[in-house]
Amino acid sequence: MNITIIGAGPAGCYAGYLLAKTGHTVAIYENHPQIGTPIQCTGLLTSDFDQFQLPMDSFLVNTFKEIEVYSPNKSLKIAQKEYLVCRKRFDNFFGDLAKKEGAAVFVNHSFVRKEGKSLVINDTVNKKEKRITPDIVIAADGPLSPTAKAYGLYHPQRENYFGIQATVQGTFNPHSFQTYFGVEVCPELFAWIVPESSTTARVGIAMRKNSRAYFDKFMKQHHFTAVEMQAGTIPVYHPQQVLRKENCYLLGDAAGFVKATTLGGLVPGLKQAEILVDCINNNKDYQRKVKPLAKQLKLHLAMRRIFDKFSDRDWDRLVSYVAQPKIQAVFEKYTRDNPVPLVTNALMKEPRFLYFVKHLI
């Protein structure tokens, strides 16, 4: 089949690679001049990334052994292996995979509109429009997906976070990254300090609104000066989001397949790409086959709704519960990309976590 993918991010290019590998004619259109720019992501991966069995040498920046968690009056350390990647090199790795399997990648080509069964693509360098009529369209063009909107797939109640991040210089423990929770720090998510090395770190915050004010406050409190700034829109998973209409499928950020607790979407997006390709190749129901992954994201969304109502006292209480050795063992065994056994086992060992369910009411 002739398949068009709009958006050359990791999920889109990974899908393109898998589809080209199985014999399809694949064209990937990217509206930016280069794959992987502008950078709009911290680039943290849990060890669940290992399941894809992909070499990391070309894009790995750092490997962490633990996460430090700070609430207003408490702190804890969780032993967990995580990776930090260079997003530009990471994205290009997947772009190169797709190209090597024969997929055509066109940069400086933006989706303009849908006309019947055809798509209009604008070559922004040559200022020329072209019409294409693919058998299948995959919208992988980000949280505001013009393609999803053109097909009437973009759910009207979807929400987005707005993240701001800076590269800073300082003295850091390169084996650990920090997260900061609390009403004064970031009432809608958390702030982070993620070291690239012992002298450089990525510092950021994300909120639905007022991101810049809280970011500036956090930077000032830690005496950081930005060397380089990045910003981006991050989608919130919506359980009623339809993933297919006509010949168009949504993928990655365009589908809102992002963990609502952390706003991480790389591992879910790659998993979703594998499911989508299997559905295309074997004529399976995409919306149904993606349900196990959607179940995980629904749990993240429920936790996000609880956290949104947290007071500083709640954050302190949560950290104190997680700091117990029996709960630490659970968090060391399961990653946040695998939340169902994480939450189930934590509740079994510490029923007091149920105290927080009152915030769902």
Set down the secondary structure blueprint.
Layout (H helix, E strand, L loop, with lengths): L1 E5 L3 H12 L3 E5 L14 E3 L13 E11 L4 E11 L1 H14 L3 E3 L2 E7 L2 E6 L4 E5 L3 E4 L6 H5 L9 E10 L6 E7 L3 E10 L4 E8 L3 H11 L4 E10 L8 E2 L2 E3 L15 H17 L3 H4 L1 H17 L4 H11 L2 H9 L5 H11 L12
Parallel strand pairs: 1-2, 1-10, 2-6, 4-12, 10-17
Antiparallel strand pairs: 3-5, 4-5, 7-8, 8-9, 11-14, 11-15, 12-13, 13-14, 16-17
Helix pairs in contact: 1-2, 1-5, 9-10
Strand order of the largest sheet: 3-5-4-12-13-14-11-15
Provide the CATH architecture of the largest domain. Answer: 3-Layer(bba) Sandwich
What is the overall number of helices?
10
The helical percent reads 25-40%
- Tell me the domain tally: 3
In total, how many beta strands? 17
Explain what this protein looks like in three dimensions.
- The chain has 361 residues and is of the alpha/beta class.
- It has 3 domains: 2-39 and 87-156 and 238-301, 3-Layer(bba) Sandwich (FAD/NAD(P)-binding domain); 44-52 and 60-86 and 159-235, D-Amino Acid Oxidase, subunit A, domain 2 (D-Amino Acid Oxidase, Chain A, domain 2), CATH 3.30.9.10; 308-360, no CATH class.
- Helices cover 31% and strands 30% of the residues.
- It contains 10 helices and 17 strands.
- It has an 8-stranded mixed β-sheet. The protein has a 6-stranded mixed β-sheet with strand order 6-2-1-10-17-16.
- A hairpin with a 3-residue loop joins strand 12 and strand 13.
- The longest helix has 17 residues, at 266-282.
- The chain is globular, with a radius of gyration of 21 Å.
